[in-house]
């Protein structure tokens, strides 16, 4: 029996497939992911360095690397989509 993918996985597969056909779409997605990466790095660094005033920050005080996991995930997807859009651009411009 085949397992059904979740919606997020299907959405990422669809975006990755579209990027394989149109490098412009991949470049736009990559730009958005790079902006998200910068925002998440700033957010994680701000939570890590400021005083622990909320319950969540005090709970994760010993596991400070947890604040950088969203940044690392966004960075991974930004690099993957950037590389895929570059490969598509290179393939479309080769004669």
Brief sketch in words of this structure:
This protein is mostly helical.
Main features:
single chain, 95 residues, mainly alpha
Topology:
Blueprint: H1 7-21, H2 23-49, H3 55-59, H4 69-93
Order of helices and strands: HHHH
Strand percent estimate: under 5%
Helix content range of the residues, please? over 70%
If helices are DSSP runs of H or I spanning 4 or more residues, what is the number of helices?
A: 4
- SS content category: mainly alpha
> Low-confidence parts lasting 5 or more residues at pLDDT below 50?
none
Please describe the biggest sheet, giving its number of strands, its sense, and whether it closes into a barrel: none
Average of pLDDT: 81
Radius of gyration (Å): 18 Å
Task: Describe this structure as you would to a colleague.
This protein is an all-alpha fold and 95 residues long. 76% of the residues lie in helices and 0% in strands. It has four helices and no strands. The chain has helices at residues 7-21, 23-49, 55-59, 69-93. It is elongated and about 55 Å long. The N and C termini lie far apart (44 Å).
